[in-house]
Amino acid sequence: MFDSLQNITFVNPEAFFLLLLLPIIGAWYFFRRDSHFASLKMSSLESIQNISSWRGKFRVTLPIFRAIAFLMLVTALARPQETLKEEDIKAEGIDIFLVMDLSSSMLAQDFKPDRLEVSKRVAGEFVDKREFDRIGLSVFAGEAFTQCPLTTDHRILKDFLSGLKCGILDDGTAIGMGLATAVNRVKDTEAKSKVVILLTDGVNNAGYVKPITAAEIAREFDVKVYTIGVGSTGDALTPVSRRRDGRYIFGLARVEIDEGLLKQIAEMTGGKYFRATSAESLERIYAEIDRLEKTEIDITSIKRYSEEFHRFALLGLIFLVIEIILRYTVFRTIP
C-alpha cells in the first residue's frame, strides 16, 4: 500500500496541525485515568497482591489504537495525492562501439588486479552514464569478432562485458581487425554521431586488415575513433608463456604500446588518443570521452495525480472499530 510514499504530496498539509492535539489528549487521559475505573475499598491488598490478568496488561494498548486511528484520519484530511510522472523523451542518440583487447598481455598486473579487469569495470561505469545511447562491444586478440551488437539493453551489454577473459581467441594483437569489426557495425546506422572507443595495450602484430586501412574506412563513413593505450611505463609483471593446463606463467616484461599508431588513427578520424597508466587515469579518460560525446535529450514531463486519502481514511476507521470492539468486549470493565 505504501510502496510509493516517495511520490506522495499533500493538498492540505495544514491539517497536520491537528496532530498537536495528540500530546494534549494523552496528558488528559493520563491524569484522569483513575476516574475511568470503579474503585473498591478493601482492608488489605495482601490477598490479591500477586494476581494479574492478561486483559489488564493489554488494556493499556487501547489508547494506542485510538491514536493511530486519529493519525490516519488526520492524514486523510491532509488529502494525500500520488504524483504519476510520465516523460516523453526524444534523444538524438550516439552509436558507440567499445573495442576491447583480449590479448594475454591484458593480464599484466601493473593494474590491480590486472589491466583487463580494470578496463572492464571502468567501461561498465561508462555504459551506465550513457542511458539513451546504443552501445555495442567487439573484442580482438589475434583475431576479432562482435561480442554484442548495438543495443540499448545495457544490462545485457554489461553481462557480456563482465564475462570477457583472455584466452578465448588466438593470442596476438590485431588492432586493425578489431577496429574494422566495429566500424562495419556502425557505418550504416542513422545515428547523429558514430563513435568507436578502441582500447589496447600492445603493438599490432596480427590480422589481415592493417590498422591504417581500418582507420581510412572509419573516416570514409564518418566514424570517430578514440584510442586508449593501457599500461604503465617501464616493466610490468606480464604473461610470458603458458602451461599445458592453460595457466599463464608470469615474468617481468617491458610495456610496449604503439602510441604513434594510436595517435594517427585518432587524428585521421577526428578522435583523440589517451594514455592510461593507472586505473584512476583510465577513469578520467572515459569521463572525458563522456563529456566530449554528449547526447542531446528533449524531455517533456507530464504529471498526473491520484487521490490516496481513502486508503488512510479506511485505515483510520479500521483501527477505530478495532478499539471500540476490544473496549466493549474483551477489555470491558464493570461500571
Give a description of the structure.
The chain is α/β, with parallel strands linked by helices and 335 residues long. It folds into two domains: 5-85 and 305-328, no CATH class; 94-294, Rossmann fold. Helices cover 37% and strands 26% of the residues. The strands form three sheets. The protein has a six-stranded mixed β-sheet with strand order 5-4-3-6-7-10, with helices on both faces. A hairpin with a 5-residue loop joins strand 8 (235-242) and strand 9. The protein starts with 7 loop residues before the first strand and ends in a 7-residue tail after the last helix.
Feature tags:
Rossmann fold, alpha/beta, 335 residues, 11 strands, 2 domains, elongated, single chain, 3-stranded antiparallel sheet
Q: Based on the structure given, which CATH architecture of the largest domain is correct? A: 3-Layer(aba) Sandwich
Strand content: 25-35%
Q: List segments where confidence is low: pLDDT < 50 over at least 5 consecutive residues.
A: none
**How much is the average pLDDT?**
84
